[in-house]
Design brief:
By secondary structure, the protein is mostly helical. It has helices spanning about 15-25, 45-50, 50-65, 70-80, 85-90, 95-110, 125-130, 145-160, 165-175, 190-200, 200-205; strands at about 5, 25-30, 35, 40, 250, 255. The protein is about 40% helix and about 5% strand. The strands form 3 sheets. The protein has a two-stranded parallel ribbon with strand order 1-2. Strand 5 (about 250) and strand 6 form a beta hairpin.
Length: about 260
């Protein structure tokens, strides 16, 4: 515990601070700069909070510019080193669009130029180079899309592992009365939660229910109809809003669809 420290909110009473410090035997600190390589506090100046990523990439590229590298060598360095530096942070936070664009520009300048102050024509846009080689690109990462994919993967983990500690904390705080896919953002939420909420359209568009007993699937709102373009019912009845579950459409005795009811 002597290696541990605690950071209190400004709203914490002094008596409670002293009780916590004496009980656990930890010291109080004014701020945590980083924890496990990630910023602990992300305020309104989000670009400044993640500017260290740009500095890391810039230092890498500067060390390579004085060397004579082939196109293959540049491709490997960009993919394996320069574009892999922000990967760890992208799995937790949504990086600002401006920062992603600047990281892409740095890699593009290194790809087309060589010397430190040399400026060469960019014969193809970075968007084309980010496409797969089958489509005529170079297979470089679109960092913004890659960032959203990493965060969507974290959201999928929350949906699949509902016994994890992070799921229980988020559910108690942000969606206590609904599922993760039905959750929404709030004004006083953490930036980690806001980052996950940015990927909610991706999860809703790409996920589809696999019907088991059908007790958790809403007939009219959820996506559950396989081999159908939208995977969901597009035209609900006009009389009233149905709250039926897919389990209501299944014959419990024969464990097959109730075709007459459908």
């Amino acid at each position: 515990m002597e290696k541990s420290s605690v950071l209190f909110s400004s709203n914490t009473p002094v008596t409670q601070k002293e009780w916590i410090k004496s009980t656990f035997g930890v010291k109080e600190v004014v701020c945590f700069e980083t924890y496990l390589g990630l910023p602990t506090m992300v305020g309104r100046a989000k670009y400044q909070a993640f500017a260290y990523l740009k500095d890391k990439v810039w230092r890498k590229l500067q060390g390579w510019k004085g060397k004579l590298l082939s196109r293959v060598g540049k491709e490997i360095l960009i993919k394996a080193v320069a574009q892999s530096i922000p990967t760890y942070t992208m799995g937790v936070f949504l990086l600002p669009v401006k920062l992603c664009d600047e990281l892409n520009q740095m890699c593009a300048r290194f790809w087309w130029g060589q010397a430190e102050n040399e400026r060469k024509i960019h014969w193809k846009s970075w968007g084309l180079l980010s496409q797969s080689k089958k489509k005529g690109g170079m297979g470089f990462r679109d960092l913004r899309a890659f960032n959203l994919a990493m965060l969507a993967k974290q959201g999928w983990r929350l949906m699949q592992n509902q016994e994890s500690l992070v799921y229980k904390c988020f559910k108690h705080r942000y969606f206590p009365k609904c599922s993760f896919l039905e959750a929404c953002d709030s004004t006083n939420s953490s930036y980690v939660w806001k980052s996950l909420m940015a990927t909610m359209p991706i999860l809703k568009q790409g996920s589809c229910w696999r019907v088991g007993n059908g007790a958790s699937i809403n007939v009219m709102h959820d996506k559950w109809i396989t081999n159908y373009p939208t995977c969901k019912v597009l035209h609900p009845p006009d009389e009233q809003e149905w709250e039926w579950r897919v389990s209501d459409l299944i014959d419990p005795n024969g464990r097959c669809w109730d075709r007459e009811l459908i």
